[in-house]
Automatic annotation (TrEMBL):
Function summary: Catalyzes the ATP-dependent phosphorylation of 3-oxo-tetronate to 3-oxo-tetronate 4-phosphate.
UniProt domain Four-carbon acid sugar kinase N-terminal: residue ranges: 4-229
EC number(s) recorded for this UniProt protein: 2.7.1.217
GO molecular function: kinase activity
Pfam families per the UniProt record, alphabetical: NBD_C, SBD_N
Full protein name: 3-oxo-tetronate kinase
Entry's family note: Belongs to the four-carbon acid sugar kinase family.
Sorted UniProt keywords: ATP-binding, Carbohydrate metabolism, Kinase, Nucleotide-binding, Transferase
Ranges of residues in domain Four-carbon acid sugar kinase nucleotide binding: 248-407
Catalytic class of the enzyme: transferase
NCBIfam families in UniProt: OxoTetrKin
Gene3D superfamilies, A to Z: Four-carbon acid sugar kinase, nucleotide binding domain (3.40.980.20), Putative sugar-binding, N-terminal domain (3.40.50.10840)
InterPro entries: 4-carb_acid_sugar_kinase_N, 4-carb_acid_sugar_kinase_N_sf, NBD_C, NBD_C_sf, OtnK
Amino acid sequence: MTVLGCMADDFTGATDLAGNLVATGRRTVITIGAPVDPLPETDAVVVALKTRTVPAADAVRAALDAHRALREQGCTRFWFKYCSTFDSTPRGNIGPVIDALLDATGAPWTIACPAFPANGRTVYQGHLFVGDRLLSESGMRHHPLTPMTDPDLVRVLGAQTRHPVGLLPHAVLRAGAAATRAHVERLTAVGGARVLVTDALDDADLAAVEQCARELPLVTGGSGLALALPPGAAPAAATIPTAPGPLAVLAGSVSETTIAQTAHARRLLPHRKVPVADAVADPPATARHLAAWARPHLDTGNGVLVYSADHREEVRDAQKEFGAERVATALEETLAACARDLTAGGVRRLLVAGGETSGAVVSALGIRALTVGPAIAPGIPWTSADHRGGPLNLALKSGNFGPEDLFTTAEDHL
Ligand SMILES: Nc1ncnc2c1ncn2[C@@H]1O[C@H](COP(=O)(O)OP(=O)(O)O)[C@@H](O)[C@H]1O
Ligand SMILES: O=C(O)[C@@H](O)C(=O)COP(=O)(O)O
C-alpha cells in the first residue's frame, strides 16, 4: 500500500486525522514535528505541526520540511490536513501551504475538502456549514485567533492562494464519476484551476470526492475524507499502552462547544480558572499555583479541570486589556507549564482542549511521537506517548468536537 504522508497544521487536527486513518485499517504513526529517526513500518505518518496561526512564510517552511522528511521516510502520497472549519486568516495559512505543496509534490491540481459530516461539517455550493449554520453564523465567527466570517470557501481560499480556485459542486458529484471527471478536466486542464473546493453533504459525497482525487499525489482538507479511503488491512480498533491514575483536563479552547463542556464538568470535577492577569504577568508561577491547587485532589484520586474562560465575553475583555496575541500566548504557556508540573508530579492522563493549547502542551512535555488508540467521539482518539519512563495517555480535543459530557466520560473509552 502507498505510505501516506500527512501534515496537520495543528495537534488536535493530527490526532483527529490519525484516528480516522486507524479507523479505516491503516497503521498510523503521529510524529511531533517532521520525523528525524527512521519510523516503524506503517501505512500512514501524520506530522503534527503548529502552523495554523504563525506567519505564512513560517508555515510554508515547516510544511516543506515535513514533506521532505516524509518523502525520505518513503511516503509517496501527501495530505495537508487543516481544520474542518477552514480556520485561517486572509493571509493564510491554508493557501500559501497548498501553493508550496503543489510545487513540491508536482501535483497538477488538488482538492480542498474540509467536509466532515459525522461532525456536522458539510459544504454546499462551496459554502461551509457547521451543523445547520453557515460557518459565518457559527461560533467560529468569534474565534480568538482565526475568526471565520465568510462561508464561501472559493472566495476565502482565492484570497490566500496565487492559483485559480474552482468548485466541484454537489450536482456534478451526484451525476457520477464520468461527469465529475469531465467537470474537473474543464476546470483544471482548460480553465487553469489548481485547487478545487469540493462540496460534500454526506459520506457518499466524500466517497465520490475520494474517487476523483485517488490518483493525485496531494490532497488537502479535513479528516472526514480519510473515512472514505479504501479499507486497509490493519485492525481498526487500535490498542495502546494505558496508564493508571486520575485525569487532568486542561481547557484553553474557548469555542462554544468547549465552554459548554467546561460548564458541564464544573458541576462534577474540582476546577480552577486560570487567572488571566497572573498568567500574562508570569506563566510559570501561575502554573505552579494551579498545579499546587490540583495536587490534593489528584492525591485522593479525583480528576481536575483547569480552564481559561467561563464566557466568551471574558475573552473579548482580556484581548482588549492585554492584546489578543499576548493573552493567547500567555494562556498557552501557562497551561503548558501546568501540564509539565502535573506530569512531573505523577499525572499520567491528560485531556487537553484546543488545537493551539494542545500544541503548546505537547511541545512543552517534549513528546516526539504518539500512538493512536480508541476513539472517545468522532475526531477525538485517546493516544499514548512515552514520557518519563512510562506511558502518558493524552486526548487532544479539537475546540469544536465532542459531546457536552466529554470531560467526565472520556476515561470510559481508555
Ligand atoms: N480567556 C481567554 N482570553 C483570551 N484568549 C484566550 C482565553 N482563553 C483561551 N484563549 C486563547 O484562545 C486560543 C484558543 O485556541 P485553541 O487552543 O486552538 O482552541 P480551539 O481548538 O477552540 O481553536 C488559545 O491561544 C488560548 O490561549
Ligand atoms: O478538522 C477539525 O475540525 C479538527 O481536526 C481541527 O483541526 C481542530 O482545530 P481546533 O478546533 O483549533 O482544535
